[in-house]
Amino acid sequence: MNYPSSVLSVVEEFRLQADKKRGQCFLTDNNILNLIPEIASVDKNDIVIEIGAGPGNLTSRLCQKAYHVAAFEIDRNLFPIYEKYFKDANVTFYMQDFLKADVIEVIKKASPADGGTPKKIKVVANIPYYITSPIIEKILYSEIAYSDVLLLIQKDVADRILAKPGSKDYSILSAACAFKADVSSVKTIGGQCFVPRPDVDSALVRFAPKKSLIGNEIPEYSVFAILKSAFNQRRKVALNSIANNIVRISEINKYPADFVKFLKNGDLKKMFELFFAQAGINLLARAEDLTPENYIAVAAQLISRWNETK
Questions:
Q1: Which of 172, 173, 133, 170 shows the shortest CA–CA distance to 151?
Q2: At 1, is the pLDDT very low, low, confident or very high (cuts 50, 70, 90)?
Q3: Are 126 and 58 in contact (CB under 8 A)?
Q4: Of 38, 62, 92, 147, whose CB is crowded by the most CB atoms within 10 A?
Q5: How confident is the model at residue 260 (pLDDT cuts 50, 70, 90)?
Q6: CATH class (in words) of the domain with range 7-209
């Protein structure tokens, strides 16, 4: 592999135009590009998943460190770059939407053919900003045991992910990530490091996967039914928002029919008042005041009540 030292020369060579609809911005700062694999501690024991390979500038660095790289990219205009500069490299490019991909199958194909020592699976990517939340959800809520996840994302999204209960930025995304990972901000990266220059800064964020706070005793959908219902009217008292919205939210998200039926047959306002009181939650608390543990506690009581009616 003989990838050029400057991605700008690749952009010029292939006359690339960033696709605004896809939120493309090419990371051009070599110091940052070299730093990312180091921060992720990528080595020859790793299979790395890259989402949004772009012109291959980060991919080339990952290939130098990893056992194998599986890179997703949907822009067919970029594939001539891969054909020229990555012909014999330890990377497989997929012209496929990561959100629709069978990542388990991709990992199997990237694993040693002789069934040797299993490799660690990491995600290291400068992900498309317009689908940040779905990508993070797919990563954290998959059955794949990722050892590390390092993502370059828009800073305002990072702020929402890292927000703590009680703050204005605290959101569904904040809690959803906290359920599954220890999240930390590694580095802020200014817009001057990209071409074209974005209007906002970016942030390199680590998601260290952990055992789910939700556990196995209650279904995840019950927690999300409550979480999404509370934030559906975040300016109102959380228990009122939950009682008013949980049936509709559950139907929209196609949660199990018998769960929805149970909700329809209950006095939701009275039930959730009791659940809040038993969990020690202020009855006047708003959605952003509840911790991830609070949402799980309320869901556990809801499932317990449902089980009593069966």
A1: 133
A2: confident
A3: yes
A4: 62
A5: very high
A6: alpha beta
Q: What is the C-alpha separation between 49 and 149, in angstroms, rounded?
A: 9
At 64 the three-state DSSP class reads helix
Residues paired with residue 148 on neighbouring β-strands, in sequence order: 122
pLDDT value for 211? 96
pLDDT at position 226: 98
Range list of H helices, the chain = 7-13, 30-39, 57-65, 79-85, 103-110, 132-140, 155-162, 172-180, 220-232, 238-252, 257-264, 268-278, 292-309
Contacts of 121 (CB under 8 A, 6+ apart): 46, 47, 49, 107, 144, 145, 146, 147
Is pTM beyond 0.70? Reply is: yes
Average pLDDT over the chain, rounded to an integer: 95
C-alpha to C-alpha distance for 53 and 132, rounded to whole angstroms: 15
Decide: helix, strand or coil at residue 26: strand
Residue 151 region by backbone torsions, left for phi larger than 0, else alpha for psi between -120 and 50, else beta: beta
Statement: residue 236 has pLDDT above 90 = yes
Other CB atoms within 10 A of residue 135 CB: 20
List the chain domain ranges.
Answer: 7-209, 220-309
Whether residue 20 is predicted with pLDDT greater than 90 in this model: the reply is no
- 159 contact partners, CB below 8 Å, separation of at least 6: 169, 203
CA distance 94 to 103: 11
Superfamily name and number for 220-309: rRNA adenine dimethylase, C-terminal domain (1.10.8.100)
